[in-house]
Amino acid sequence: MRSRFEPDRQLTARMVVTMFLLGLVYVAFIAALIVLLKSIVLVLVIAAVFLGAQYWFSDRIALYAMRGHLVSREEQPRLHGVVDRLCATADMPRPRVAVSHMDMPNAFATGRNADHAVVCVTTGLLRRLEPEELEGVLAHELSHVAHRDVAVITIASFLGVIAGLIVRFAFYSQLFGGRQRDQNTAVLIAVVMSVSALVYALSFLLIRALSRYRELAADRSAAMLTGKPSALASALTKVTGDVARIPTKDLRTAQAFNAFFFTPALKSGSALGGLFSTHPSLERRLRALEEIAASLSGPGGRDGRRQ
């Protein structure tokens, strides 16, 4: 079902290319493990189980990890009201609504498709934002659902997670059991760890590149749907500034979900660089929203038509 969120062909193309490249890496990864571990059935079963769990239960996993729970209309009438209005405007299925009891101001969308999506906001976000700012953030998250990039990021993240787990398993196996193994086994573990590390690095870079673009696409779609890019810019500035004041120990528990958040759970200046970031810089996002505001206020823009 197509929504009224503006389609983004560049985002679609990037998702297709990313999934294709990750698929090639994934096939090579499985083939290498089969050759090294001499067990086709075991490798395929493990891969299928983890992928199935990641796809089918991604919403439950994310909510559990972020201490979130589904809320009824009676519990959060303001939040449900904004989601209802936006979904009616966008002509899209209404996702389930959840709240995470965390002071860190943020929001995320998860789920395998629009019919099984969840939009979750933290209590810290609800407490800090004005109504128009909250509307902009929720429109941003609903755009992720409408563009189906939530499901793509969920599936894409699977390969990196599995490769990372294998690296850790191989490392600790070698660290604590090295004396009890012969030289051939030690070499095998080292090769598996190297292949897994390479796969993790490749998937890491591919997912980060896609994640940065999808955030810009969601900002644009949200601004165009609401017609209020300045409200979204205000929310971005406020949330980014407040996240920087959250204690580091509280941010660490959330950093595994940075790719799904409205803004990353990072201190200002703590990112390793644009290549490794899940989000564009605040300056880049604000600049893009300023350009959208200018286009909407021009002669052919939405604001221009209102005059």
From TrEMBL:
Co-factor note (free text): Binds 1 zinc ion per subunit.
EC numbers on record: 3.4.24.-
Main location per the UniProt record: membrane
Keywords noted in UniProt: Cell membrane, Hydrolase, Membrane, Metal-binding, Metalloprotease, Protease, Transmembrane, Transmembrane helix, Zinc
Residues involved in Zn(2+) binding: H140, H144, E215
Active site positions, chain numbering: E141
Topology in the lipid bilayer: Multi-pass membrane protein
Signal peptide annotation: none
Peptidase M48 domain residues: 75-292
One Pfam family of this chain: Peptidase_M48
Cofactor(s) named in the record: Zn(2+)
Transmembrane stretches, start-end: 12-34, 40-57, 150-171, 186-207
Single GO term (MF): metallopeptidase activity
Enzyme class: hydrolase
HAMAP family: Pept_M48_protease_HtpX
Family: Belongs to the peptidase M48B family.
PANTHER family documented for this protein: PROTEASE HTPX (PTHR43221), PROTEASE HTPX HOMOLOG (PTHR43221:SF2)
Protein name per its UniProtKB record: Protease HtpX homolog
